[in-house]
Write a structure and sequence with these properties.
- It is a single chain.
- With 511 residues, the chain is of the alpha/beta class.
- The chain contains 18 helices and 15 strands.
- The chain is elongated and about 110 Å long.
- It binds one RNA strand of 75 nucleotides through helix 4, strand 7, strand 8, strand 15 and helix 10.
Length: 511
RNA sequence: GGCCCGUUCGUCUAUCGGCUAGGACGCAAGAUUUUCAUUCUUGAAAGACGAGUUCGACUCUCGUACGGGCUGCCA
């Protein structure tokens, strides 16, 4: 049986998407593209309590920044619209009732308080309360209440939920594309809530199965935290009579905190010393903010490349992958089983690799907004050139200004260590002489300037290091930066002279 | 606690019974360099433990330990 590949990314809008979610979306996307299928975006907002305004927009913008394209779903539309579960409300009740009618589910009237009490009681005895075959006939459920009583309770407006009637002692045999064959005994499982009358909304389990079926999803690729509910999902497909079209499942290894203490979560914010979100986020309720990869100066291609390799590998030694290359190389059976700790240093390395591959036009586009923030108006050509000269030293795009500001702004202070070493003895006089040499140069290209200056220093018997470092002190102010002839060419003859005059006038020789 | 999943260098990983266990990040040393970087070379660094299967186990089986997930009218 081969059917059209249709996968979905189905986040819950309870806050910003974290990088684990992005990776899940990415693997879904790669799988869809690899097999010529469709990528859907469904918003699972069935928990009215945890809904966070702005989260959906954030998710969409994040995917867009990452280059993960949605073929069908929220923000795009499609044949199975709507794709927001809160807008599909009326669909689910019917299915919940169908399950009750078929004996696969039942009404339960326990209040949250009663359940809390039962849990507390069990805990006191060192037990864990489970809502299952052992207790369901002793509780306020349609399994033991009379039909009249059930109807009366519903009619009078008592709140109820629909629970799945988990069979007793049955071994559910499941197959996972990543983990292989998995078996679980239903006696260890409990009767999950499928539908809640309080807000007339299904829970994840029901909505998920119904929507995946209705939307003709062929493969469910999701985090490993869902593995324990797989038997329930299998049983739901069976209860609905949809086993023939039940999707294949793949449970991805979790992304762990770098400290090793559990799975990465939204609450980690950026307290780990690196962003856990793709984009900057401001909480609409608390006003709290969290850093994002985009704002921190990462290139989306580098970010994606890094994420792709966290839990998957191509089996070759290739490390740098464009999205297209990822699509071509991706396969679920090369996804690893063990959780992966996120490693911030590697993300930086990827970014540095991608940054140096940028051409001047791309560099200018990235650098111009940063320059403007610093009050520098310049041409795209010069912005691109400045960034290009220094690009091998850039890790994050936010490094750019620190690394290249001297191209645009003359130094006002001089690094003490370098000044102590260079601004003494004959060096000030030597620099004054070099000023005249520079003034005399007609063709100020770096190649020509270098020829002239080298000839001069050889004739004078100066050492290259001495001259260059003193000149660096005058033009850059610090012991860093590109080759000095890159600097002279970039800032031009007049600016060179001006900066030399500046240091001679303002910095007293050391001794 | 119960159920489930996992376990190769510090980290991400390769190895699908024959290994001198490979690569990458990071780290260290050296070389190149007008500074800082880059680059290049080299190095240190791993099969959780115990049984079994086998001519042979990192690879298969079982147990133990450890890690993780789930155990909500959250997803």
């Amino acid at each position: 049986m081969s059917r059209e590949v249709r996968v979905r990314f189905a986040p819950s809008p309870t806050g910003p998407l974290h990088i684990g979610g992005v990776r899940t979306a990415l693997y879904n996307y790669l799988f869809a593209r690899r097999h010529g299928g469709k990528m859907l975006l469904r918003i699972e907002d069935t928990d009215s309590q945890r809904f966070v305004p702005g989260a959906e927009e954030y998710i969409i913008e994040s995917l867009k920044w990452c280059g993960i394209e949605i073929d069908e779903g929220v923000g795009v539309g499609g044949p199975h619209a709507p794709y927001r579960q809160s807008e599909r409300k009326d669909i689910y009740l019917k299915y919940a009732m169908q399950l009750i009618d078929a004996g696969w589910a039942y009404y339960a009237f326990d209040t949250p308080e009663e359940l809390d009490a039962l849990r507390a009681e069990a805990e006191q005895k060192g037990d864990t309360f489970a809502y299952n075959f052992k207790v369901r006939e002793q509780l306020a459920t349609s399994l033991c209440l009379s039909k009249e009583e059930v109807e009366a309770r519903i009619a009078r407006g008592d709140q109820w939920v629909v629970r799945f009637k988990m069979p007793e002692n049955e071994v559910v045999k499941m197959d996972d594309l990543i983990r292989g064959h998995v078996e679980m005994n239903t006696s260890t499982l409990d009767d999950k809530v499928l539908y809640k009358s309080a807000d007339a909304l299904p829970t994840y389990h029901l909505a998920n199965i119904v929507d995946d079926h209705l939307m003709e999803v062929s493969h469910v690729i999701r985090g490993e935290e869902w593995l324990p509910s797989l038997p329930l999902h299998y049983l739901l497909y069976r209860a609905f009579g949809w086993e023939d079209t039940r999707p294949e499942f793949a449970h991805l290894p979790l992304l762990l905190k770098p400290t090793g203490g559990g799975k990465l979560s939204k609450r980690d914010g950026d307290k780990m010393g690196f962003p856990v979100f793709p984009l900057f986020w401001t909480s609409p309720t608390t006003g709290e903010t969290a850093r994002g990869y985009r704002e921190d100066g990462y290139l989306p291609e580098a970010f994606i490349n890094m994420l792709a390799l966290l839990g998957w590998n191509p089996g070759t030694e290739q490390e740098i992958f464009s999205m297209q290359e990822l699509v071509e190389a991706f396969s679920l059976d090369r996804v690893s089983k063990a959780g992966a700790r996120f490693q911030p240093d590697k993300a930086k390395w990827f970014n540095a690799q991608y940054f140096r591959a940028l051409d001047r036009e791309q560099l200018a586009a990235i650098y111009q907004p940063i320059l403007r923030e610093h009050g520098i108006e310049t041409s795209d050509e010069l912005a691109g050139k400045a960034a290009d000269i220094m690009k091998e030293r850039v890790t994050l795009t936010t490094d750019l200004w620190d690394l290249t500001s001297f191209f645009f702004v003359a130094p006002t202070t001089y690094e003490e260590k370098l000044a102590k070493k260079q601004w003494k003895g004959d060096n000030p006089a030597m620099l004054a002489e070099l000023r005249e040499v520079l003034l005399s140069i007609e063709d100020f290209s770096k190649e020509n300037t270098e020829v002239v200056v080298r000839a001069w220093l050889e004739q004078k018997g100066f050492s290259l290091g001495q001259v260059m470092n003193t000149l660096r002190l005058a033009l850059v102010g610090e012991g860093k930066g590109p080759g000095m002839f890159d600097v002279t060419e970039f800032i031009g003859r007049e600016e060179c002279v001006r900066r030399i005059d500046n240091i001679i006038a303002n910095l007293k020789p050391m001794e």
